[in-house]
Amino acid sequence: MSDVRRGNPLSRTIRAAIKVELNELNATLLSFLFVFILMTAYAILKPVRDALGADWGAVGLSVTWTANFVLSVIAVSVYGAALSVFRFRMVVPGVYAFFALTFLSLYVITVSVAEPSLINKGFYVWVSVFSLFHLSVFWSFMSDLFDKSQAPRLFGFIAAGASVGAIVGPLLTALLVDVIGANALMLVSATLLLVPIPIILVLEKLRVTELGNEDVRADVSRQKTIGRNPFAGFSIFLTSKYLLTIGAFILLYVTISTFVYFELQDLTAEYGINTRTKIWSWIDLATNVLTLLTAAFVTGRIVTKLGMPVALSLMPGLIAVGVLALVAAPTLIALAIFQVSRRVGNYAITRPSREMLYTIVDRETRFKAKPVIDIVLYRGGDMVTAWIFTFVAKGLGLGLAGIAFVISGIAVTWTAIAIYLGRSYNRSAANSDYPEPVEEKTDGVA
Questions:
Q1: How far apart are CA 236 and CA 232, in angstroms?
Q2: Count of domains for the chain
Q3: CA-atom Rg of the chain in angstroms
Q4: In a domain, 114, yes or no
């Protein structure tokens, strides 16, 4: 009897919709729940963080962005050191337990001091670090859990869990903030961050018992530590052409994101705070709903039927064409539609596809170099491209049409890099080889 006929009606429906095999179903649904909880915990705190920034002005926010970058470098280095010292099976759940403890501590400190302005800035920076760290570690774990044949089919559906969490989190904030207060939301988020810990332990078992991936790059349960150099992630990234190309891919995405975000800020500046809040809320709602539908039912089919080069280059290519519409109609509604489309494409297609690139690398690269790219490089890109936009838009006086042409040029370059990455992935996956062969680090491995 084929797998399609086995299981209860609900499991058959799910498996038919997302192309998951029976032995993969439990791990896939638990992974969906895992990232849903993570994103809900973050999305609860995001409105609180963003509400604080309005009190500090442009200079104050620029300082916090710089602090984000500096703290990101420190956090990734500490994470690398933890991977080098502690048993691997303790590190991933330990990350979420640590963040839960920090939010609990921030709550206690906030309600204990008379003037919490400095604590509020620390909270803003820490949530910004958490916003990238929690997903980077999650996807590192996913690329270690599923092999390169499973990831293209399953990562899209799993990523949809983040979209559901991004919808549920703000709703919980809106319902609870008047009841328990903004500060107490940190307690809710901290509690949620403890839930993935038993899920991680179950997934580690399913990796061997149901997924049959005990031989993929080394069994999680057998690894004690990953290399002895806590800064190996930085050196691995800087000496790998493959990883540097992924870094360039992300930097170009960050550049476009910053340009569009700043333009939206300029175009909405004439409206009152309530109207601006509604505009951003509708953009977020439309993004998350469309991302959920696309990631759950479309992404896997794009990757498996059209291949990685198409999946990675789809959104850069569409952006290169789409910005021309902004030149023809440089309006707020056109830019808002463009923003929603860009974010949906990234969250539903580009991000899951990008995470698949790490299924063919060794463990030390996956867990140490990946956070350098996802967190340090991303935050550094945020900081640098913000100043570039200020120079281009303010210093040179370019309007929306001029900015659109700049974005189009960036998108063309981004498309070329995406195609190169997709082809490199295909070659390496076919040969079961890392793009730049390196000896897998085994320092500290039992």
A1: 6
A2: 1
A3: 21
A4: yes
CATH, residue 12: 1.20.1250.20
Of residues 177 and 17, more confidently modeled: 177
Q: What residue spans of 19-145 are helical by DSSP H?
A: 25-53, 57-85, 88-112, 117-145
> Which two tokens mark 352?
């899951």
The pLDDT assigned to 119 comes to 84
Q: In the numeric block, which tokens belong to residue 244?
A: 């540097």
Q: What does DSSP assign to residue 440?
A: P
pLDDT band at 334 (very low <50, low <70, confident <90, very high): confident
Q: 222 lies in a domain?
A: no
Report pLDDT for 221. Answer: 39
Does residue 55 sit within a domain? Answer: yes
> Is the distance from CB of 255 to CB of 381 less than 8 angstroms?
yes
Question: Which strand (E) or helix (H) includes residue 163?
Answer: helix 151-180
pLDDT value for 15: 63
| Dist. CA 126–CA 105, nearest whole Å | 12
In a domain, 291, yes or no: yes
- Can you give the residue range of the structural domain that contains 63? 3-217+227-431
pLDDT > 90 fraction of the chain, expressed in percent and rounded: 14
Please give the structure tokens belonging to residue 240: 């790998």
Q: If you write DSSP's letter for every residue of 258-325 in order, what string do you get?
A: HHHHHHHHHHHTTS-HHHHHHHHHHHHHHHHHHHHHHHHHTHHHHHHHH-HHHHHHHHHHHHHHHHHH
